[in-house]
Fold this protein.
Amino acid sequence: MTESIHHSGEDAPTPTSVDSEMPQPQSPTDANGLTSRGPRRADVDMPDSSRLDLKDDDGYEEEPILIPQSSHSLLFTEEVCSLSFAFGLGIMVLSFLSLILALLNNLGKGEPGNLLGIPVQVDSSVRGAQYLAIIIGMLLEEEIPQSFYLLRMIPKHSLKQRFSRMKYWQFVLSATIRLMMGYIFISNMFLVIAQASGVLDIFYDMLALQFIQMLDDIAFRLAKIDVFGKRLKIATSRKCFSVVFERPSFRSRKPINILLKSLYFVNLIGLLSGLIVVSVKQIKGEFHCDSLFITFGDDIWEDSIIKLPNGTISTRVLLYSYFNGVYTRNGTHDGLPIYTEQNKLSSTRFERTIPAEIMYCKSEGSWVFLHQNIRKSKSDNDECPWLLRSIETTEYNILDVGGDWSLWAGRFKGGSFSAVCDSCTSDAQCNYHGTCSPTGKCECPENGNYFGNYCEHKKPCPTIRGDWGDTWELRTLNGETWDPRNDTLDSIFIAYDRPIYRYSTGFKMDMPENDAVMLVYTGSRWFGMYFEGIHNRTIEWRSNYSYEFHAFWENAFSQLTRFVSDPTTESTPVAVDMFEITDRGDHYGPMGELTPMRVPRGSGYFQCYERENTTTLSSSTELSF
């Protein structure tokens, strides 16, 4: 026998409410001794299944099975067309949108090679907080266990027996929404933990996510105290939220119980495993840029000291721009990556030439540029013999280092240094002359119209002419004139991503037949370099020489260097100002007396021309080597 539910005052439900046709719920003071907190075990004749749950243990009291006081519950306790249902739906949409926007924002921090936007490295305190936050986050996340708890404890027949007007599919939908929100919360939680670079950042972001997840509970409580109006107060104060459901048999709920526990630990293990993978990759430096394109300024050290392992010491003019080019991540030092200089032909590793390196030195507290065989003094035996260093910094990523750099040029002075990640993310970074591949490298057109790391260099002019009547040609590795219609760029000398021109005619010079003068780009300037006996060399030697060429180790600026250009980034020497080195001495700069080969400044010296349309010009200019 059931009793009618009596409502008084403004809280009385309308005749169309779900409760109006519900079977009698257990009121807080009914004859069976039920209270608002649920039945007292001593006063209830519990079914066998409930006794099995207790397992003859009188040391605890079972938690009563109640519909959660959450706006999500309004999605099945209220009629679909009601204001209270729309309220619950609105809070659900608000929560979902907030979590999804947070997720998209976190995913938007990614970049090629690091899609999740993970910091390149974090210190030990942050790493420890990350693992603690995973455990804390799993304790905070309650939507996933709550959804399975409801499906496990309130089966279809139990819900229909208590509240015939409630639709079970709406009940399942509400539980499913909780489940989905729980996994979006977990995804966000993992990202904010993995992307964090500070301890407080982790916990602040987690509290923000927890607040979003609690919007349904907060909205329900506010509605219950009449913040949003009478109808929502009535909907959130219905007796269905205090009715205790009969506990299902242990056997019937056992599968879902096992699933819930398994899923909880699978989630925990999955998050911890993901964080371990992130930590290992950070320690190995895998989130750092794989390769950098380094550009030094035009600074010159006139008497750099070369100290070889056999004890030999010599001096040489060092232009820091000699070391411009690609540097690839290769190992670690003091827990951060070492970037190793690559060759000037194909940006791959040198075979015989000892490369320069860029690394972080704890002893200096700075990122540094160094070479093991170049020292600041003859007695320099420092563990970190830097030639260029950043300001003191704790930045793990060299791309994030700001401030001025200092270099050594016989004394301390300010230096220029820039580094960019040597990868592309769009065709725009390939200058629209090539395509950006999935590996982050520019692929230039096969027709050879453009070349270079970023397809920035146009196919070179095969012959150039100077104002003094001198002509220079591109030659293939076998010594023949390069024909752009039939020959590829792979068949010519390339250095620092620029073609090498060989002198042909025009100057009056006394030069042995097997020697040659070449126009070679050396990182920022074109030099007229003298090569002895190059015509006697084999194709294999020339190919290896081009592969190993380095302006510093080949002593590009020597007593035989007769002319030099202004600093330039142009693809060829066309339209670049050139200077003849007319005298040398201590009373001149490190490159000697530089006389413009054409005036006024800015008018360039070389021009491109078609060989068949040009007659050979004579010149009275004499160059001696």
Notes: The longest helix spans residues 250-284. The first strand starts at residue 291 and ends at 296.
